[in-house]
Amino acid sequence: MNLLLRIKRKFYKLFHPPLGEILMLHRVIPERSILPANRELEVTPDFLEKTIQLYLAEGRPVVSLDEVHEIVKGKKKTDKPFVCFTFDDGYKDNYEFAYPIFKKYNCPFAIYVPSAFLERKGKLWWYELADILLNNTRIELPDGAVYLIETIAEKQNAFLEIRDRISSEEGRNCYETFNDLFPCYKSLSKYDLDKYIMSKEHILSLSKDPLCIIASH
User: Fold this and answer.
1) In the predicted model, is pLDDT for residue 217 greater than 80?
2) Cα separations in angstroms, 87 against 93, 106, 126, 207
């Protein structure tokens, strides 16, 4: 970042103090992934609870998405910058581990659920990709690209490169691109959506609790 941009941002923040923070989380699990790329999408239940405790100890209001809208529109004011917790993808661990913690502290949160996951048409390809890389020391893609991946650092670099390739192919479904790239490799973990993603029953249960907002991802 150049000096002029840093100065502009400082002046902007001086006259436009932040109203609050929206935290974008994904998974809450006791044991996080080996590869940093997926590990950064995960926090432990202990970390989540300590984070909530920290904000509450600072007197920061934990608000819902609806309240964020009211604050931004000037319809509601807070004494200190707010914090809003959101979760992407609708992982089952949100229900099993995160939900009890938010209930314990009576704090609102939101979960963004992809329709493909809810209808069991999606694919946790980023976890399957990690499995393939972790269980091989060399992979070759149909286009001839070869990855020598003996160390965790090499597996991480390969993961990032292949992930970007899958995500950047415009007009194509990520799931289809993944299957095309790995016709001869299978994930050993078998990331079944029924095992890792919330069911309709879980979502219905959460939707009945005023603490939780279910939104479309």
Assistant:
1) yes
2) 11, 17, 17, 14
